[in-house]
Design goal:
This protein is mainly α. The longest helix has 30 residues. The protein is globular. The chain starts with a helix and ends with a helix.
Length: 399
């Protein structure tokens, strides 16, 4: 029952996203979206309450997930407390607020067939529809929904492997400047192709390799963040450290440093580095300076393209830590506590997605986030981690 309901809601989300980026945008898309999001939230809370015993016994990380729920509620309540106009209430209640709870899709991994149905729909119908309807410049937005399938190429039937590979390569040729998508796609393809051509011959992923990759992806962003904050080295501003580069300026231009600076200045000015400022607060006051709506000109910009930076702004160090802990836990259990390569590959990709969240992964990407957190749930689900690869192969055998 619930599997079918969540599947239909997911399809509705994907179609709304598809038409919003096509030449045939839906009228009142924001409000239609909000209705489906709140319906999804109601269903997920009902689902969790009905399956509480199973969830509490079979999932790791329940306490951290509960802390994230509390932290999200606090960010929303704080946002409502200082909202005084339509645009701020809209941001809290229709945009940023509901997106804070997408991580609850972790518990949908209990409905294991939900993922197979969604993947079947995406591969069979959604990818083709997006190629036909979406402007080429925005095609990477479709890829973000299915990018979690890239490390799992070896588990699909041959024709679907080629569907995914062809779409990915086609998208890369058109959207090379969408660097977040390019990085996800290349890393995912490397994992998927490694499994097909190397891993299946040696049967087990090398623990040494996994330890190195996990450690580097966990530590490097924290080190670079510290170096950037201290002004020692800015990893976003690579252009400043390169001479006579063969790459174009568009490929190297820094589009993130100033966002971090603005957010940090706002947090320090309001003495909210530890706890954040809550939702509906502007960090970029003159972002809407030329808007025809007077209230918008006063509000400015309240969120960024970076999922992690958003949570850091809204919830401070505490919020950013709890947000990151979900990624870290899912990756750790998937890589080091699973008996199948399926979870190990997903775990490696999840810790990479955390790295990407420093520059991308906006909270409002509904379908992409639902799929990402669902795969995290697979890694946190004790029963699934104990399944063998043959079962997972059958599970993803999309006819």
């Amino acid at each position: 029952m619930f599997s079918r309901v969540f599947y239909y809601i997911f399809v509705a989300f994907s179609l709304i996203e598809l038409f919003e980026r096509s030449s045939f945008p839906l009228p009142l898309g924001t409000y239609v979206y909000a209705i489906f999001i709140y319906f999804w939230l109601i269903q997920i809370f009902i689902y969790i309450s009905k399956n509480y015993k199973y969830i509490s016994f079979n999932y790791n990380g329940n306490k951290i997930i509960a802390c994230n729920v509390v932290c999200s509620l606090i960010m929303i309540i704080r946002g409502l407390s200082h909202s005084d106009n339509y645009w701020q209430y809209k941001d809290v209640l229709l945009n940023s607020g509901p997106s804070l709870f997408f991580f609850l899709a972790i518990y949908l991994s209990t409905e294991i067939h939900f993922c197979a149905k969604c993947l079947s729909y995406i591969i069979k119908y959604y990818l083709l529809a997006s190629v036909l309807l979406i402007n080429d410049a925005r095609l990477a937005n479709t890829g973000r929904i299915m990018c979690n399938t890239l490390p799992l190429l070896g588990y699909f039937m041959n024709k679907y492997k080629w569907y995914i590979i062809i779409f990915t390569l086609y998208s890369l040729t058109l959207t090379w400047d969408a660097r977040g998508w390019v990085l996800r796609a290349l890393f995912g393809l490397v994992l998927g192709l490694y499994y097909i051509f190397v891993q299946q011959k040696i049967q087990r992923l090398s623990k040494k390799i996994m330890n190195i990759v996990f450690s580097v992806l966990l530590i490097a962003p924290l080190v670079f963040s510290y170096l950037g904050y201290k002004g020692i080295f800015n990893v976003f501003d690579i252009q400043s450290y390169m001479d006579n580069s063969s790459m174009s300026e568009d490929d190297l231009v820094d589009t993130r440093s100033f966002l971090y600076i603005l957010v940090q200045e706002k947090l320090e000015a309001s003495k909210s580095v530890v706890g954040g400022v809550g939702l509906a607060v502007s960090y970029w006051d003159d972002f809407n300076a030329e808007s025809n709506v007077n209230e918008l000109r006063k509000i400015g910009r309240t969120s960024t393209e970076s999922g992690l930076l958003n949570v850091y702004f809204w919830g401070g160090i505490i919020g950013a830590f709890l947000y990151s802990m979900i990624y870290w836990m899912a990756a750790y259990y998937g890589i080091f506590r699973s008996k199948n390569n399926f979870c190990k590959l997903i775990g490696l990709f999840i810790i990479f997605r955390w790295v990407i969240s420093f520059v991308d992964e906006p909270n409002g990407w509904v379908c992409s986030n639902i799929m990402l957190y669902f795969f995290m749930g697979i890694c946190l689900n004790k029963k699934i981690r104990n399944l063998d690869d043959e079962f997972m192969q059958r599970y993803l055998k999309i006819e």
